[in-house]
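User: Structure please.
Assistant: Input sequence and predicted structure:
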Amino acid sequence: MTSLQKYAVFHLVVLACTLAAVGALLLATGRPMASLAGFALLALIGIRGTSMRGTRSPIQDERDEQIVRRAAAASYTIFWICFVAWGVVLTLAFQNGAAVPIVYIAPAVWVGMWLVLAVRAVAILALNRASTVDARERAR
């Protein structure tokens, strides 16, 4: 397993733990705004050695750099599609001129960050696998 794959798997584990924490807090408290505290686990992604920045970067060569760029483009594309769709849904749901409750807006930031990181990690694994399979085919 390459360091880039380890990086992506670590992010997926942190994201799964975050989702579990938010769900557990929601079940325990019954309050959606209080359950947002579970997103604090996203701070684990900043642990030195697993970050894309710094001296211990998982990027090893040009192929890894291209994979990371494509994964970032995919994650931000999915984020913006979902963000705009959420805005349209809220507009349609509250079209009678009523104010949109904060309980529908505040989680968008956290869910958006979670979505960007999740899509990025999955895309890194998928692109890494695809490039490895492609390299094996060319070697034949």
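The radius of gyration is 18 Å.
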